[in-house]
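Researcher: I'm preparing a figure for a lab meeting and need a structural model of a single chain. I don't have an experimental structure, so a prediction will have to do for now. The sequence is pasted below. Please return the structure as C-alpha cells so I can convert it later.
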Amino acid sequence: MSHELVGWHFEYMETETMNTDVIEAWMVAKVVEALDTPANEVDCNVPFTSLGLDSLTLLEMTGDLAEFTGCDIPVSLVWEFPNINALAQQLSLLTPAIPDIATAAVARDQPFLLSYAQERIWRDACHDEQGDRNSLLDQWTLSGPLDVDVLSQSLDEVIRRHEILRTIFTVEDGRPVQVIQPAESVVLLEVDLSSEAQPAEAAVRLLHEEAAQAFVLDGGSLFRARLFKLSELEYRVVFVLHHLLYDATSLEVFYDELSANYAALIGDGRLPVMGPPLQSADFALWQREHLKADGAHYQKLMGWWQQYWSGPLPSRLKLPSRWKAKNDQARVQGGVLVWEVPTELLVKLQDLSGQCSATQFMLFYAAFEALLYQVTGQREMLIGSYVSDRSRPSAKQAIGYYINLVALRTRLSERPTFLEIVEQVREKLQQVSIYQELPYEDLVGVLKEEGRALTRLQVIFQQIPDLDQCLSLAGLEVERWGEQTQTQMPWGLTVNLMERADGVKVRLGFDANRYRPSKVRSLMKKYAAVLEQMGADPAERVVPLRKRWLGIF
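Model: Understood. Here is the structure written out cell by cell.
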C-alpha cells in the first residue's frame, strides 16, 4: 500500500511585524481569559506558574502563540523565558518561517496508515470476534424539555465534521490501516423506559449491558450513542467510544461542538459556522513524514532519549505484595477513586509553586514520586506519562488520539527533601517536553536491540482536562450520571490530575484484579498526607517507611 503525497500545502498566519509590546499585550489577554482576572493584576515579570497557569494552559498558549506570531515555538521556550516580559522579548526576535501541520489532497475512499499512538493501541487490542473492550462510557442526566430530533441532528453534524468518529480499523498488506466511512446519520437509539415501574433502575441495567458490549475494530461503528427516556422531562444519554477515536481533549472538543450545535438549532435553526478541523488520517500521514527514521529531526530525538536512558535501567517497582488481589489471572476490571483536593491545601501548594517556579502538575508529580519512595524504598523508578501532540494550532480543535507515551526516569538521593524532588522533577519535565515527539515504541525497540529492556510501566501519571461540566444543552439541566467509565483499565495504577478554575481533582484508576480497593484507598490517603507535608514544610526530608508501617497499605 502506498500513499502519493500530492497537493501538500502549508498554512501560515499572516501577521504584522511583531514587537515586544504587541506580543506582551496578547499574552496578558490570554492570561485574563484563562484565569478570569483583571488585566491590571497580571504581573508580566513573575513566573507563569505564579500567575496560576497550569501545564495544559501553558501548552495551549504555546500553540496559540505559534499561530499568532507565525513562528514555531517549542515548549522549552516557556521554561527558558518563564514570564510574559521575557518571553515576549524573545519572540519578537523570531522570524515567521515554520509551518503548521500540513494536509494532503488524498482521496478519502482509500485506507490510511495509523498514527504511532493509534498503532500502539491497535497492537494491544483484541482482534477476534469477541471484540475489544478498550473504550469509554460517558453518561449524563438531562432534565427538562429535550428536543430529541435536534440532539440527533447536532450529533450528526459533529460526526460529519470529524472523520475519526466514523472510522474503522483493519489490516492491509500486513499493516493496520484506518478506513473512513461515509457520513451518514448516526443511530441515536432511544429507549422509552417511562412505563417501567422503576425507570432509573432499568436505565442502570441497560447501561451495564452497554458496558458489556465490545467493539469489533473492523466491523461497524466504533462510536455508539444511547438515549434512555425516564419521563417527558428526564433522560439519560450515554456515549461509548473506542480509545482509538479519542483522547481527553477530544472529548472536550466533542462536547463543545455538540453543545454549540444544539444551542444554535434550538435558537435560529442554523448550525454555527466552524473552520475545518484537522482530520486524524491527515495527522497520521503528516506525522509519519515528520518523524521519518532517517530524518535529522527523528535522529535528534532518538539520540537524546538514548542518552537519557544510558547506564543501568531502573528495576521493577517493588510495590507491597499485600496490595495484590487473589484472582491475579482474571481479565482486567477497572476501579476508580476520586479525591477533591481541599482548597486550603491548594493555597499552600500554589505558594510553593511560585517559590519553586514549578507548575502545579510538577508539584503533584513530585509528591507521588515521594510517596513511591516511601512505600518501596527505591530511589530509581520508571514512571510513564501520556503527553499531548496538540502544540500546533491546527490540532487544538481536532478529535482523535493525539497522545504520545513517555517513560520518565527518577533518580533520588538518599532521604531527599521535598524541594530537591520538585527541582529534579521540574528539570526533568522541562527537558522531556522538548523531545517528547519520539514514538515510545521506537525507543523501546532500540534499547531492546542494545540488549537493554525497559521494565513494563506499572505507574502512569498524567494531566487531563476535567470534563464534569463540559456538556451544556440549551434549556436543560445537565449533570454527570456517575463517573466516566473506562471498560478496560491498563495494568497497574493510573493517576489523572484534573485542574479546573475552582479546584483540582485526583482520579486514581487501578486494576481491581491486582490491587484491593481498600489498599488503594489507603494509598490515596497517604498521598494526601504527603502533599500536606510538602505544603507545610517543603524542606522536610522524605524517608522510606519502616516495614512495620506497611500494614497501612
